[in-house]
Amino acid sequence: MSKNATDRPAAVLVAVQLATVADIDHEADMAELGRLVNTLGYDVVATVSQRRSNVSKGAVLGEGKLRVLAEITGGPGPAGMRFKKPGQKRDDEEDEYEEAPESGEGEDDADEGDAGVAPASKKPTLVVVDHDLTPSQLRNLEKCTGAEVLDRSGVIIEIFHRHARSREARLEVEIARLNYVAPRMRESSGGGDRQRGRGAGESQLELDRRKIRDRIAELRKEIEGIQREQATRRALRQNARRVALVGYTNAGKSSLMRALTGSDVYVMDKLFATLDTTVRALHPEVKPRILVSDTVGFIKKLPHDLVASFRSTLDEALEASLLLYVADASDPTFRSQLEVTRSTLGEIGAEGVPYKLVLNKVDRVAEEDRTILLREFPEAILMSAKAPEDITRLRQILIDFFDALMVPGELVVPYTKQALVSEVYEHAKVLSETYDEAGAHLVLRAEPAALARLQSLVQK
Q: What is the distance between the alpha carbons of residues 109 and 64, in angstroms, rounded to a whole number?
């Protein structure tokens, strides 16, 4: 049974707006962070944002804003934080140095930023920071607020953990979680004692971290086995015409996948609603078949471990014949989202794959704005995944793209190899078929690689 809105726990968002970040980009980042937190199951009841020249090494915010944050969460504030003395080092920190919260420098706590106050009946139990936190920053914020603290990467990894369905996705997310947790582990109050017997000389924290390394090694071995199976399946599809949907999370890829293939792909207006790659044939089917795959969505500041972990999933994009860059045209920040898509694809070496830009959700865009979009992106396909006529048009664009790659050819299939005729129909467009004493004469069009392969099969 799902919780209703009143039962959902509350969260407060925290961010620093650096001088290099424009207001519109900062607002978009905060809105996106809010949606991530909503996807995690929390209601955002307050936001604490501050303009600073840098992120405080001690606790992200300056002292004044820390007090505001503590007032919202009911925590003790900066007074509840303890700081190391210069040069002091603990077992669970490598080279971290916690400094006291700055006050005054590069900030104006009275005027800069914006903070909302949560209702007393709904105090936030979670503080979410739009920056990657060091272990010391995390610890200080927890002491200051008395609440659980997550950074942006932690939220994304937790969402991935909840939404992973396939065995491979679950293993990949577990590796990312362990890599995220390991440096943030802390020594328990009595955990600093050295172990006796086996493993003597290691603290409990060191033992725990070693267990994590061993577990990651086990998971990677298991994933390697799954990836070998996937590579075999991809090899079977190697000669197929493949389209991969790529783009920012929640751009409408799954809705588009469902409309193009008639499949029952999960669709939800949430960030990272689907993580597992789905491959389906274009519907109604054409000969040769066109396979469409939906890949994991991208997002700003996607944790590097997740990009690395989902490399096999993203290989669908790397091995595709055509990429459809899907963007939400109704989102004012879709241009920067496109840059995220391009840079992420660049990380896996897929920037050279042919692509078409699909500006989705134009049903939410005013007519005059559509004209502006067409002027800016003349080659783009403006459409809505909800409009059947737009899906029909996109389907024909895909067919035309692959048909343009075909070259004419002829095959003579002897009667002793008549089983090959069905394979020819599977991988080529047969224009005519006649028979004489030599066998079946097929006039066809096919992509060069497919034609060469069919010719070699006939000549064997």
A: 5
Provide the 10 A C-beta neighbour count for residue 366.
10
| CA neighbours closer than 13 Å in the CB half-sphere of residue 453 | 14
Query: Which residues fall within 8 angstroms of residue 74, CB to CB, at 6 or more apart?
Result: 123, 146
Identify residue 299 by its one-letter amino acid code. Answer: I
Q: Determine the pLDDT at residue 259.
A: 92
Contacts 24+ apart (CB under 8 A), 149-156: 150/126, 152/33, 152/36, 152/128, 152/301, 153/180, 153/301, 153/303, 154/180, 155/33, 155/36, 155/37, 155/40, 155/128, 156/36, 156/272, 156/299, 156/302, 156/303, 156/306
Q: What is the pLDDT of residues 133-166, one digit of tens each?
A: 988 899 999 999 999 999 998 898 888 888 777 7
Q: Each residue of 160-175: pLDDT tens digit?
A: 888 777 787 788 888 8
Count of positions (residues) in the chain: 460
Confidence of residue 397 (pLDDT cuts 50, 70, 90): very high
- Show the tokens assigned to 137: 């920053």
Residue 232, number of CB atoms within 10 A of its CB: 9
DSSP result, 112-173: SSEE----TTS--SEEEESSPPPHHHHHHHHHHHSSEEEEHHHHHHHHHHHH--SHHHHHHH
288-291 long-range contacts (CB < 8 A, ≥24 apart) are 288/240, 288/241, 288/402, 288/426, 288/427, 288/428, 288/429, 288/446, 288/450, 289/240, 289/241, 289/426, 290/240, 290/241, 290/242, 290/243, 290/398, 290/399, 290/402, 291/237, 291/240, 291/241, 291/242, 291/243
Query: Which residues are CB-neighbours of 433 under 8 A, at least 6 positions away?
Result: 421, 440, 441, 442, 443
Q: Is the distance from CB of 444 to CB of 424 less than 8 angstroms?
A: yes
Which residues 6+ apart lie within 8 Å of 30 measured at CB? 13, 15, 47, 49, 130
Q: How far apart are CA 249 and CA 337, in angstroms?
A: 9
Give tens-digit pLDDT for 342-384: 888 887 788 888 999 999 999 999 999 999 999 999 999 999 9
Work out the number of other CB atoms within 10 angstroms of the CB of residue 240: 17
DSSP code, position 247:
E
